[in-house]
Amino acid sequence: MITVLLAIFIPFIAACLIPFIHKVLTGRRIGWFVITIPLFLFILLIRLVPSLSDGASYLYSFSWIPSADVYFSTHLDGLSMIFALLITGIGSLVVLYSIYYLSEREAIGRFYTYLLLFMGAMLGVVLSDNLIVLYVFWELTSISSFLLIAFWSHRKQSRYGAKKSMLITVTGGIFMLAGFLILYTITGTFNLQELISMREVIAADSLFIPAMLLVLIGAFTKSAQFPFHIWLPDAMEAPTPVSAYLHSATMVKAGIYLVARFTPIFAGHATWFYVVSCVGLLTMLWGSVNAVKQTDLKALLAFSTVSQLGMIMSLLGIGSLAFASSESTQIALFTAATFAALFHLINHSTFKGSLFMVVGILDHELGTRNIKRLGGLATIMPITFTIALIGSFSMAGLPPFNGFLSKELFFEAMLSLKEANLLSVDSLVLLFPIIAWVGSVFTFIYCMIIVFQTFFGKVHAPAPGQRPAREAPIQMLISPMVLGSLVVLIFIFPNLLGTYILGPAMNAVYPQFEGMHGLVPEIHVWHGWEMPIFMTIGVIILGVLLYGLLRYWKWIYSVGFLQWTLDRLYNAWLQRIERVASIVTKTYMTGSVRDYIAYIMLLFIGLVGIGLLGFQQFIFDFSNDAVIEINESIIIFVMMCSSVAILFAKSRITAIILNGVLGYSIAILFVVFRAPDLALTQIIVETVTTVLFLLCFYYLPEWKNEHKSISMRVRNGLIAAASGVSVTVIALLVQGHSLYPSISIYYETASRLAGGLNVVNTILGDFRAFDTMLEVLVLFIAGLGVYSLVKLRRKKGVDHTEEK
Amino acid sequence: MKKNDVILQTVTRIVFFIILTFGVELFISGHNNPGGGFIGGLVLSSAFVLLYLVYGIETVHRGTPFDFKRVAALGVLLAVSTGMLSLLFGESFLSQTTWLVDLPVFGETELGTMTIFEAGVALTVLGVVVTIILGISEDVE
Predict the structure, then answer these.
(1) Chain-chain contact of B76 with A776 (C-beta, under 8 angstroms)
(2) Burial degree of A740 (CB within 10 A; 0-12, 13-18, 19+)
(3) Chain A partners of B85 at a C-beta cutoff of 8 Å?
(4) Could you point out which of A103, A310, A463, A682 has its C-alpha 20 to 30 Å from the C-alpha of A14?
């Protein structure tokens, strides 16, 4: 399916092109080039929506590393579609917004390169069907978001936030990879669709729970679930368009995607339900409670994102109960929870995206995001105010905005738990609606803070360095306006979204109930005097009350344990790791090459020597050996003499020449044994290295006999002797062993298979071309390393700070 | 280390091209005879090292209008991109192919994508070796 491949690769190609295009399209104009990419992909994807709602899905696969079962497979189904549309749709709006947000003085080209890299990686995550490919893209999102968060790298906080987010999400990713590998050992496939079809096999395996938990850790770290949420508030140091994109619409939702994607595989087990829904609910409560105490608007939004992600997560947890149900009424009840999760996912992206952009506008126009410095902006910035009102009220779950609909579904799902008489759901679960309700009350409070403390009250006189308030330019308002109108539109036509976008996604999450009636519930704005609506009214009453009395109970937050305890733990841990690492490094990095060689040799002796002693299979078989000719003995004798003589050399030039003798003798030995290729290489390498030696010859320190202590000499001698003995023993052992059949027959056909008569080169260039390619790469990196080390040393040498 | 060494300079003028030719010859014959990308690249770089030794870095820099770091980068790019090329034809990464072509002067000649790959290897080796040697000798000067 070419569309899907295009969707993944176009952002990457464009990212590579930006440095070149940026020379032509300077300044802001580069943004207009960038915006075409997500827009084009969005149109490309949305054209497929009707066919997806007819039940089609696009699976495409081509071979990447077939020997490791890694196929570059992509799969576009309803679930991927939701995310792909969010990534490209909100991506376009964010780019449009950023064109006016970023000043011309910023490194705009770099910004868009990172943004496109991120977009491509994110599309790769949601579209790939192979777990390894998914993992590669997953970590790529971590890396590109690291670059984006640290975009203003001159700020210490930016660097701190970027490092934190990367450490946490990458660590989670590695756990996830371990989970994937376990799944592979169980099923023998990396392909998601095959894994889903083998869910019974997976569920029966003893490694089922570890695999599930490992995958969940990956999802939780990415989606900033408790206790991994601590990176999200610090990631807010990124430029606001990035926050709007990464932390409302895309990156943090990757974890949600993963949970939804793996629901068919893992759900049906009580552990999945408990872990996902409890962590989700806890995150929701924790995030909303903490959001209220924030004074920075962006930090407030960060915590609210944490909370909302928790809410979606808990809904997915409840949705998984459908897998354990048998009655159709119960199935309908629990699938409705997943439906609510996906619905709220879209709603959250719309209103949170618009809110982030509003905060960005405030920051851009006023130079502050501090609530205490804001106030009375409703009349000065009417459009911004309207958008903020729509976004916040939607987040608070009030009509006539889309958040109301998903909030009602959320309450309904929570209440539906008491109907569950399965999976030994105990009384603990009855607490769920209460926690959800309390979380919603706090959600309501912080939404009111955004609206009323920013836009009402008295206008603050601008502080020094702060501009007087005025409405933002219309270009900056377009993107949040589009999102704000979506918030209202979705409220009016929710079922359109349900049929075309959410329906196919539900089929992807519940493959076994496919085509079942009731998988896509009808959304009603008015659903009767039921419990959810009473809960909402309760939220409003208590919320208004608490918001009014906020200053009387806000002191609660200064109570110790509500402070950043987890953050402190993280910082302390990081510091300790750094300290230990530096102590360890300083002990063994002596700066003496001789010591490093000793380490290498010791490791070698340790691994090989102990291994050999462990197996105790010293079989020496010389029966098949050829007779050693006299000329071979002479060459070996010369080699031995020259190597021993190096030890007693009185001057450096003698040593270099003796070393050359050793090298050329080896070359002659190769000639004798009819390996002209090796001989040629040996001679040339020897020549070049000798030239190198001679080049530095003048500048090396005086060659003097070092007077080392006896114990040191004995130690070095022992290491040298031991490594020599190990090599010799191995060489002799290899003679007598033939564990595997000889592969030389394979290479006898080299001329037919690779079209070349020189076996060495056909091996290097064809049979083992991958090795050669990587070696070339290593050589290149080593060359760059040497070059930059030399340059760097010289720069430091100018002020001689290193010597002093 | 610029010195006025007439004999060395005169000899180098001729030998440089002999070494270059030898390097290219080694590279091309590598498919059927001893040689190949790695050795070819090393020989080529030894020719440049000789030039630098005899004429001094500044003089040679004026004569060679390319940066050896870029040569190395180009080599890596070539080696990796030939691997990618096979993906376009639905083959697995790094698959090589050969054609027998009847060329006017050379007669029936075998052309293969492996030559491009080897050229990448040779350029990388050339670039890296000269970069390292130049880096060190520039540093000590």
Answers:
(1) yes
(2) exposed
(3) none
(4) A103
d(CA A551, CA A572): 33
pLDDT tens across A662-700, in order? 999 999 999 998 888 888 888 888 888 887 777 777 667
Distance CA B141, CA B128 (A): 20
In this predicted structure, the answer to whether residue A254 has a pLDDT above a threshold of 60 is yes
**Beta-carbon separation of A688 and B45 below 8 A:** yes
A480 within 8 A of A398, measured Cβ to Cβ: no
Alpha carbon of A27: minimum distance to chain B alpha carbons (Å): 28
Residue B98 bridge partners (DSSP): B112
Specify whether the backbone of A343 is left (phi greater than 0), alpha (psi in -120 to 50) or beta. Answer: alpha
Q: What DSSP line would sit under A244-302, residue for residue?
A: HIIIIISHHHHHHHHHHHHHHHHTTSHHHHHHHHHHHHHHHHHHHHHHHH--BHHHHHH
Out of B33, B73, B124, the one facing A758 most closely (by C-beta) is: B33
Contact between A387 and A393 under an 8 Å Cβ cutoff? The reply is no
pLDDT digits (tens, 9 = 90+) for A363-380: 888 877 887 777 777 788
Write the CB contacts of A450 (distance below 8 Å, at least 6 apart in sequence): A297, A300, A301, A355, A388, A392
What is the C-alpha to C-alpha distance for residues A291 and A307, in angstroms, rounded to an integer?
9
What string of DSSP letters covers A288-332? HHHHHH--BHHHHHHHHHHHHHHHHHHHHHHHGGGGG--SHHHHH
CB A77 within 8 A of CB A508: yes
Q: What is the ipTM of this complex?
A: 0.90
- Give DSSP secondary structure letters for A143-166: HHHHHHHTTSTTSHHHHHHHHHHH
Query: What is the spatial distance between Cα A197 and Cα A202, in angstroms, rounded to a whole number?
Result: 10
Nearest residue to A415 via CA among A405, A407, A404: A407
Q: Could you tell me where the DSSP H helices lie in A47-155?
A: 49-53, 78-101, 108-127, 131-149
Helix (H), strand (E) counts: chain A? 36, 2
Residue A730: other Cβ atoms inside 10 A: 14
Using pLDDT thresholds of 50, 70 and 90, give the confidence band for residue A704.
low
Question: Measured between alpha carbons, how far is residue A14 from residues A94, A125, A438, B119 in Å?
Answer: 17, 18, 46, 28
Q: Count Cβ neighbours within 10 Å for each residue of A659-670 and write b for 16 or more, e otherwise.
A: bbbbbbbbbbbb
Residue B132 contacts residue B80 (beta carbons within 8 Å): no
Is the overall model pTM greater than 0.90, yes or no? no
Residue A589 C-alpha, separation from nearest chain B C-alpha, in angstroms:
23
A29-43, A126-140, A449-463, B110-124: segment of lowest average pLDDT: A449-463
Identify the helix (H) or strand (E) that includes residue A65: strand A58-65
Copy the structure tokens of residue B21.
Answer: 């030719």
Strand positions, DSSP E, A633-756: none
- Residue A237 to residue A153: CA distance in whole angstroms: 10
User: Is B135 within 8 Å of A765 when comparing Cβ atoms?
Assistant: no
The candidate with the shortest Cα–Cα distance to A660, out of A696, A691, A686, is A686
SS3 assignment, position A640: helix
User: Nearest Cβ partner of B31 from A66, A761, A790?
Assistant: A761
Q: How many residues does chain A have?
A: 804
Distances (CA, A) of A792 to A585, A779, A785, B58, B135: 21, 20, 10, 21, 11
Under an 8 A CB cutoff, do A783 and B39 touch?
Answer: no
Distance CA B45, CA A685 (A): 11
Nearest to A539 by CA among A451, A414, A437: A437
